[in-house]
Amino acid sequence: MTESDNDRRLLAAELREAAQCCRDEAKTCPTLERRAALEAEAEALEELADEADNI
């Protein structure tokens, strides 16, 4: 495995961690609008992580 492979895997892991943070925050968010925005952000981060895995 090359250094760039490791970098991509690290990036993907960090993106997934950020997505989980968004989901955790969404669970306690008092407003529906903000909760939906956090869930959308989490989904976008997961998609980016998947792309990083497949480069």
Which secondary structure elements does this structure contain, and how are they paired or packed?
Blueprint: H1 3-28, H2 32-53
Helix pairs in contact: 1-2
Overall spatial form = elongated
Number of β-strand runs: 0
> How many individual helices?
2
Query: Structural class given helices, strands, pairing?
Result: mainly alpha
Largest sheet: none
Content of β-strand: under 5%
Helical proportion? Answer: over 70%
Radius of gyration, CA atoms, in whole angstroms? 13 Å
Task: Please report the distance between the alpha carbons of the first and last residues.
Answer: 13 Å
Can you tell me the residue ranges where pLDDT is under 50 for at least 5 consecutive residues?
none
Look at the structure and give the mean pLDDT: 94
N to C succession of SSEs: HH
Features:
55 residues; 87% helix; mainly alpha
Characterization of this structure:
- The protein has helices at 3-28, 32-53.
- It is an all-alpha fold and 55 residues long.
- It is elongated.
Short note summarizing the structure:
This protein has two helices and no strands. By secondary structure, the protein is mainly α.
